[in-house]
Design goal:
32 helices; Arc Repressor Mutant, subunit A; five-stranded parallel sheet; six-stranded antiparallel sheet; Rossmann fold; about 1250 residues; 65 strands
């Protein structure tokens, strides 16, 4: 940045040079003086353009006022241009002259009476105007004012804005640590994309480097070899001390040398080590190297009088993993949390660099971009978008709203367009695309939350055929190229990584690739800790893969050998050798048996052995397929069918029961009971849940069905196409046609007209015994089933809608925003009011005590009770597409469908409950909003494939369910008791979910064609779904067989003991098995459960050791169950394992009972925190004496062929299942 621009005449060069010298002495190092070789116009640059570019970029202009400059047209142009840009002007009179008129309103400084006093006044004036040299940094006008996806660096300090408060807090904390002692490690914790690296590199380091009592080392990242990375940031002599000293004090000694070398006789300088992305210690660093690095760091930081301080950045989702990491141990540190950006911060990030660079932002651009920052990736997306806008459109000094919204597609479109443009420009071949996809797999890992995170790879690992393609991504700033050893020049291994994780989410093509490869990525990642554990204890045979996991490893090794590293290969090879040795022992036993028999029987034993091995391998393969389909690819149907095959094939009763538990945990007891063929694909469907009735219509035909019996109760044909249908009491149906005619019919009676035409809409009261109809000019009420008009109200307006208010009142509203309220039976409205806008929607409170309406961005609430208050209208920043009064009447929720944003309002005042909207993911529009009956939570669904549960008290997501991998629009309905949610989409079918945890409680309920609707009936225990092909399917819930349910909290649950130190005998057994540091969790007659962090092991008779059983968050407690099963739970999750096979029988299940205070185990699990409780069950499905696969086909109407392909059964195929169809009578009709 040319902080100070010196405007002068060429005849005053001597005075200008003297001024520049004085400015530098005052600390103003960033100057522009046109003839200066260092700070002037570089050779070859266009003189006039450079002058104006520097004026745009400067912070202030000192004008040397003389006879020559005041007569110069060029000086006049510089002054007027600077004023137009809003720059600070400082006229400095160096000889007698008449000031230009444009300078007369600005205080000047006259050097003629006393030059030194004059300069002192100039320095004071500049500082008071905000041009303090200690607060500003140099910025090269030819550097981008918006760096893009990569973190800001120290050279970008001049254009770093938005985190000033956090910057000051971080500097203050470091100063306190230096001054008062105590912990000397400060960890800056924030979510991915929160700007941690930029804050440290461009905010903290430049400031700290100017302080005389600090010496700041260059930032480092741990990468794979953190000690090597540490050595690279040390001065050469200190580096030699570190690498030449094998003791734990090596770093402390090296830092002491650094501090001593900078000692100037005053107070000894503190040395700051900056570790960026500390999470790499637990994600990609070599385990041995990570442990050594932490040992060195601990020895240098712990204790009094040390020279080293450390500032580290850490992703929030890795904090617990770091603290539980064996190498980290009890490392003392101070934590500083980095909160979310506010709209003010985002506005500064957009506008202030533009001001500095002299770029004009069109009015409305900043506001629009700030409104688009409601996603988790807002900051990196914004950074990339701003850089793209500057690169593509900033040359003319102006960026427009159209360039942002239309040319690059807004915040979401910028990265996607850039990545697609790279591919479009280079036109890679299909083999190159395959290699590109493989390269991105190398550069990604999956974090504990299931999100994709970056990892660096060596350039030499990338095939030469796609090097030009990767270079293009680097040039587009989507990838970052570096070197493992920057000081080694061309000899340092070149590295490559994604510029930011936002690319994984914003580029649709890459996200789709990674989602498709997710099973392999998770397998490779989950196998890593097992391989590392085996490398640390290679004699522990219990750590090796067996059965299904080994078969799965062979499959992946065969399919993707080039992507399996040496450590994993060695682990798989050792497991394979152990399996072969086990087989040889078995063969030796067979041989011994064979000697005792006649020679001819040897052949029979051999054939039996081969069949047994093949059969066992097949079972193991199905086990692995089930677990992989459930946990890696999210295909619950395929997983259930694989489990069913295991149950049918295994000769072991214990294995069959475990496999059936796997099926039951997925199916939840929901079974198909009927298939009903509709006369035609329905254009509309309405269900009366209490009476188990369904009416469907298409064109002019309507059909009424009994969902219990499946019987068609009545059909009617109508001359005009039907618009809607309602089911009233006593099986009466009300129809409205496109002309506004209203008809009433029921089984056994012909339809009769209630109104010939002009009725714009209809509604029933709660009992279904009165019908409300509205039209241009009034409202009518009919009694049912008589069909008589019992009330009319004439209104001079075109009525847009009307609703019953309980049993006594009616509310109606017009298209132009007028409302009327009246009691049934009265001829005049009891009250009326005007909203002065076109009403888009209305919601009435459950107690009919208030009404909420909205138009565009305006919301209005009015009490309907006599003398009730009217809340003044209030504005939402976005268009309101829907709103609800939350039960209890204290909160209102509104939403914008396209942007996926919700806002919570105080119902009494209209004030927002939170500063920021509740925003779904970037691709998550909103189509449905459900409110739980008690009013504490809401469920949203729409685009993006997710269902989100929001806690209204916290204003945050409490749980998320992935319903549709295809990211199709998801619709939802809630059961009457609020504990269950039914979701459906065109591509994924329907599925039942637990409301408070969003745990799936059923398999996907599928049709042959796309599902168009679903509904509960019978108090939520019945489910009906329908599809495009006129297929209606009826399902029945069995709540006792569902995986989990909320229960009333009580004091009866007993406390489950935490892990304890084993006694000496058990410790000796564990030590002999290589299980050092394990604690006792549970003990039975024939088995013991021990735990260490996230790993548990079951120790059986004869010290038979189970494979490792894991719980990602760390095991808080656990229990031994029957038949070798083990139940583990932590603070937030639960998982059931088969300890014999080492297979998880359930997915990792999240709980809404966080940090449970008590638990009771009785086959299932009951946890409680004193306020709420949750029951977990593991029922074994009753297959009614038929094969598990046949039972599953009957209950789900799906099948899997020999190649693993899934298909949905037709009604004929379902009915043909011998002895398995739930209701033979249903198939006979």
């Amino acid at each position: 940045m040319s902080g100070i621009f010196i405007s002068h005449s060429s005849r005053d060069n001597t005075a200008a040079d003297d001024l520049a010298t004085r400015l530098r002495a005052q600390g103003y190092q960033s100057l522009f003086l046109d003839f200066d070789p260092a700070d002037g116009i570089p050779a070859g640059r266009h003189w006039e353009r450079e002058i104006y570019a520097q004026l745009r970029a400067c912070s202030g202009v000192v004008v040397l006022c003389s006879v020559h400059s005041m007569a110069s047209d060029w000086c006049f142009a510089e002054i007027t241009h600077a004023r137009a840009l809003g720059k600070q002007l400082f006229p400095l009179i160096i000889d007698a002259c008449e000031l230009r008129s444009v300078l007369l309103d600005t205080q000047s400084t006259d050097l003629r009476p006393d030059p030194e006093a004059g300069y002192a006044r100039l320095w004071r004036g500049m500082r008071s105007a905000g041009l303090d040299p200690t607060d500003s940094f140099d910025w090269d006008v030819h550097r981008p004012p918006y760096p893009g996806l990569t973190p800001f660096q120290a050279a970008d300090a001049a254009v770093y804005f938005g985190r000033e408060d956090d910057q000051r807090r971080c500097l203050d904390t470091l100063a306190q640590m230096h001054r008062y002692g105590g912990d000397r490690l400060l960890v800056l914790v924030g979510t991915s994309g929160s700007g941690k690296s930029s804050l440290v590199r461009a905010g903290v380091i430049p400031k700290l480097s100017r302080m005389p009592d600090w010496q700041v080392l260059a930032p480092m990242r741990p990468l794979q070899q953190p000690v090597d990375e540490l050595a690279r940031v040390l001065p050469e002599d200190a580096r030699a001390r570190l690498t030449g000293d094998a003791s734990e004090r090596a770093l402390a000694n090296a830092v002491a040398a650094v501090a001593a070398a900078s000692d100037t006789g005053a107070e000894r300088r503190a040395v700051l080590l900056v570790i960026d992305q500390l999470e790499e210690l637990v994600t990609i660093s070599d385990a041995t190297a990570a442990a050594h690095f932490v040992d060195l760091l601990r020895a240098a930081l712990v204790g009094e009088g040390g020279d080293l301080y450390c500032l580290a950045t850490l992703r929030a989702d890795y904090l617990s993993a770091l603290q539980s990491h064996a190498a980290w141990g009890q490392m003392p540190f101070r934590e500083m949390s980095l909160g979310p950006m506010t709209p003010r911060h985002f506005a500064e990030i957009i506008s202030k660099p533009a001001q500095l660079a002299g770029i004009e932002l069109e009015p409305g651009l900043v506001e629009t971009m700030v409104q688009d920052t409601g996603t988790a990736d807002a900051l990196p997306l914004l950074a990339f978008t701003l850089n793209r806008l500057w690169r593509d459109f900033g040359a003319d000094g102006k960026i427009t709203l159209d360039e942002y919204t239309e040319r690059i597609g807004g915040l979401e479109g910028a990265i996607r367009q850039e990545a697609d443009a790279v591919l479009a420009a280079l036109k890679p071949t299909r083999p190159q695309i395959t290699e590109l996809r493989r390269a991105f797999r190398r550069m990604v890992r999956v974090d504990p939350e299931g999100q994709y995170t970056r990892r660096s790879v060596r350039w030499q690992e990338i095939p030469a055929a796609i090097h030009p393609l990767m270079e293009a991504f680097v040039k587009a700033r989507l990838l970052v190229s570096g070197q493992e050893d920057p000081g080694a020049g061309s000899e340092g291994a070149r590295t490559l990584e994604v510029a930011h994780e936002a690319l994984f989410r914003a580029w649709d093509r890459l996200k789709r690739w990674l989602d498709e490869d997710r099973a392999f990525l998770l397998w490779r990642q989950h196998l890593r800790p097992e391989a590392d554990a085996w490398q640390a204890a290679p004699k522990d045979q219990g750590l090796l893969l067996r059965g299904g996991p080994l078969a799965e490893a062979h499959r992946w090794l065969g399919e993707r050998e080039s992507e399996v590293d040496d450590t994993l290969r060695a682990f798989i090879a050792a497991s394979t050798q152990a399996a072969r040795r086990a087989r040889r022992r078995w063969r030796a036993l067979e041989a011994g048996i064979a000697i005792g028999f006649v020679a001819v029987s040897w052949l029979g034993v051999k054939l039996w052995q081969q069949r047994l091995e093949t059969h066992t391998q097949l079972i193991n393969s199905y086990w692995s397929g089930a677990v992989s389909a459930r946990d890696a690819t999210g295909d619950a149907l395929k997983a259930a069918h694989y489990f069913a095959r295991v149950a049918d094939l295994t000769p072991l009763a214990q294995t069959r029961e475990s496999a059936l538990i796997g099926v039951g945990a997925l199916s939840g007891g929901v079974e198909l009971t009927r298939m009903i063929a509709l006369p035609a694909a329905p254009e509309g469907v309405r269900v009366r849940a209490d009476d188990a009735l369904l009416v469907s219509w298409a064109a002019g035909n309507a059909t009424l069905h009994d969902l219990h019996s499946g019987a068609t109760l009545a059909q009617t044909a109508h001359a005009k196409p039907l618009q809607e249908a309602l089911i009233a009491a006593q099986r009466h149906v009300v129809l409205r046609d496109v002309a506004g005619g209203v008809w009433l019919w029921r089984p056994g009676q012909a339809a009769r007209a209630l109104a010939a035409e002009a009725i714009a809409g209809i509604a029933l009261d709660g009992d279904g015994r009165r019908l409300l109809g509205w039209h241009d000019g009034g409202v009518r009420i009919w009694s049912l089933p008589a069909g008589e008009v019992v009330h009319r109200l004439a209104l001079t307006a075109s009525i847009a809608g009307a609703r019953f208010l309980g049993n006594e009142g009616v509310l109606a509203w017009s298209k132009d925003g007028r409302f009327w309220q009246w009691r049934i039976g009265e001829t005049e409205a009891s009250s009326s009011w005007q909203t002065a806008c076109a009403v888009r929607g209305v919601d009435i409170a459950a107690d009919a005590g208030s009404v909420l309406s909205w138009c565009d961005t305006t919301l209005m609430r009015r009490d309907l009770t006599p003398g009730g208050a009217r809340v003044p209208p209030w504005e939402s920043p976005e268009t309101v597409d829907g709103a609800r009064i939350v039960p209890g009447g204290k909160v209102i929720v509104s939403w914008n469908a396209a942007r996926g944003r919700l806002r919570l309002w105080n119902a009494a005042t209209g004030q927002p409950r939170f500063d920021q909207p509740l925003a779904r993911d970037s691709d998550g529009s909103i189509s449905h909003v459900l409110v739980t009956p008690e009013g504490s939570r809401i469920i949203t669904s729409g685009g993006g494939g997710n269902i989100d549960l929001w806690d209204l008290a916290e204003g945050a997501i409490a749980a998320r369910g992935r319903h549709d991998k295809a990211e199709a629009t998801v619709s939802t309905a809630i059961a009457p008791d609020g504990t269950r949610v039914l979701a459906w989409s065109a591509t994924a079918g329907a599925r039942l979910w637990d409301t408070n945890t969003l745990t799936p409680l059923s398999l996907p309920l599928q049709h042959l064609e796309r599902i168009t609707g679903a509904a509960f009936f019978d108090d939520g225990e019945g489910i009906v779904t329908w599809s495009d092909d006129a297929d209606l399917r009826v399902w029945r819930r069995h709540p006792a067989a569902e995986l989990t349910a909320p229960v009333a909290a009580s004091g009866s649950a007993s406390s489950k003991a935490k892990a304890t130190v084993p006694d000496s005998a058990l410790k000796a057994r564990l030590d002999a098995l290589g299980l050092h540091g394990y604690e006792l969790l549970d003990q039975g007659d024939d088995a013991t459960l021990v735990v260490a962090g996230p790993l548990a092991r079951r120790l059986g008779a004869g010290d038979m050791l189970s494979p490792p059983l894991t719980l990602n968050e760390g095991v808080s407690s656990g229990a031994l169950l029957a038949d070798g099963r083990v139940l583990l739970w932590g603070n937030t999750s639960v998982q059931l394992w088969d300890a014999i096979s080492g297979q998880p029988l359930s997915a990792l299940l999240r709980s809404d009972v966080l940090y449970p205070e008590s638990a009771h185990v009785d086959g299932g699990l009951l946890t409680s925190d004193g306020n709420r409780a949750r029951q977990w069950r593991w029922p074994v499905p009753d297959t009614a004496g038929v094969a598990a696969q046949q039972w599953l086909a009957a209950t789900s109407a799906t099948q899997m062929d020999a190649q693993g392909a899934m298909s949905v059964m037709t009604r004929e195929a379902w009915c043909a299942l011998a002895g398995a169809a739930p209701d033979r009578a249903a198939c006979a009709k």
